[in-house]
Amino acid sequence: MEHDTTDFGFSEVPLADKASRVREVFDSVAPRYDLMNDLMSLGLHRVWKRFAVELAAARPGERILDLAGGTGDLARLLAPRVGAHGRVLLADINRAMLTRGRDRLLDAGIAGNLDYLQLDAERLPLASQSLDAVIIGFGLRNVTDKLAALTEMRRVLRPGGRVLVLEFSRPVLAPLRPLYDAYSFQVLPRIGRLVAGDAGSYRYLAESIRRHPDQDTLLGMLHAAGFSRCQYFNLTGGIVAVHRGYRL
Known about the structure:
With 248 residues, this protein is α/β, with parallel strands linked by helices. It has helices spanning 15-29, 33-41, 44-56, 73-82, 95-107, 146-156, 176-196, 199-211, 215-224; strands at residues 5-8, 11-14, 63-67, 87-92, 114-118, 131-137, 157-168, 228-235, 240-246. It has 9 helices and 9 strands.
């Protein structure tokens, strides 16, 4: 990266500090993360995740990495699709989130074809060309070097493998933008304070969305990382987008 600092929400912090700052945020929000997702999105996050999983087109026997998988929503949808002979790797840099994800999946009776990995998305400890798909849901914006992470995702994919990036993006409907801003910066931190006892972490999450690349910029990053046949799908007026690319 060209500079010695990077964004942490609307602030600039030393490159070496961002990962620990992000870890502190998710250590704080982990206990109420799933409840807050339902409250913040009015349950829409479940629709967005199902859409991304459908685009992933998982098949029996495949090996799929759920990167920054947190509390396991995507892994829960993917595990039945890959079946007993497939494998879902639920991975996150944050131990608190990963532990919560493991507990939720075990409580739901989902086991046997799942592995849990604590890892850094920029340096995946996985063999090259060892996976059929990588999906990352609402995690890329928290990565320090996003292009490095995307390049790693391509490295671990087999030829024909696909990457799915589900992330907040830029609303494409102009009337939606001021309402979205008001909700993000006024309502969301208040919900965070009342429900999770932490307004600051949810203020950061809102700010991190605004600093994340928009749809076309992220599309260009996928091409720069070496992916082909890249495209994106806007959901809920562009509040969320799913990007997909292939390793040829």
